[in-house]
Amino acid sequence: MSKLDELIAEFCPDGVEFVELNEVLDYEQPTKYIVKSTNYDDSYTIPVLTAGQSFVLGYTNEDFGIYKASPDSPVIIFDDFTTSFHWVDFNFKVKSSAMKMLRSKDNEIANLRFLFHLMKNINYIPVDHSRQWIGKYSKFRIPLPPLAVQQEIVRILDNFTELTAELTAELTARRKQYEYYRDLLFTFGEDSGVKWMKIGEFAECYAGATPPTRKKEYWDNGSIPWMSSGEVNLGQVYDTEKKITQLGYDSCSTKMVPANTVVVALAGQGKTRGMVAITRISLCTNQSLCSIVPNGQVKSDFLYYYLKTQYQNLRLISSGDGTRGGLNLKMIRNYLIPVPPIEEQERIVAILDHFDALCNDLTSGIPAEIEARQKQYEYYRDKLLSFKEVSA
Fold first, then answer.
1. pTM across the whole model
2. CATH topology for 17-144?
3. What is the DSSP string of 321-379?
4. CATH architecture of the domain formed by 195-339
5. Alpha carbon distance 123, 81 (integer Å)
6. Which of 48, 220, 236, 271 is most buried as measured by Cβ atoms within 10 A of its Cβ?
């Protein structure tokens, strides 16, 4: 019998009391902690937080209106519209008036970290853009076992989250290492013997097209992979979300390109423009993507890895006068690329493939291990936080 089983047998063999969140959690409005200036800088020391996915928006030098939190006095920040939340144990300011700071009303009755894990078990998605805490989220009923049981559950679940945090830190370090070696490998001196060639000198460049979306016969039950601009974020493309029919393909000027084609986003929302992907299947694309099909002088993977280092430069050339904020085929064809001998290209690709798999492979790399740990945490969280309600 585990320690947790022994504690449950001793303190709550017949079940536990259920309470509403608002019975054990106090909330504070963020008004006096809202940052006044958005002049963020990494050299400043006070984090500015949001309860959204980005969490830390930046750092401010404002030394007033700081919310005081610490490892000994933590807080849960809660987005009153999305119900997203985070654990915080350091001083901070907040971005939005929509946030609430949650603390346990009595740490001798309800362990805040226990409540944090419990909230992760609440399966609730807001359906309207309105305040969620009062009258909705805070009304959820949760099991509240005796404090000793809460503390043991926290110890078990925190072991999983600590392992995930360690892996995430390792992944961050590996990605920095990867970027360092990638930049080093693509630094060619004047005496390196490397030729500089325009992409159009060693590759064909094609733009795609989009069949009219109103024509169901162009899309329904399609089998031809059709890549959209957003899918360039995948990096390596093994499948596409949408498929078109042969009628759809024939209706427009899109073109099938072979596997291992390098794809550059000519346009797109936000950060998409200038991003690079490589296809691992034959497919066609929309008009906002340029497909680059190299000849034998340049390996596709070498070109893919090199162009990934050129993101800022590609965006720069596409934001000048007359460009309307987009790249075009002429710009891509005229873009200069270092072309070392094939043997050197293959050596560079082999090194970068190793780092890329370690940093990005969802089947064997660190991300795969992080995902496995997360699933393990979720499994045990669901199991440990499932209690029978004690009879009144």
1. 0.63
2. Adenine-n6-DNA-methyltransferase TaqI; Chain A, domain 2 (3.90.220)
3. TTSTT---HHHHHT-EEEE--HHHHHHHHHHHHHHHHHHH-TTTSHHHHHHHHHHHHHH
4. Alpha-Beta Complex (3.90)
5. 15
6. 48
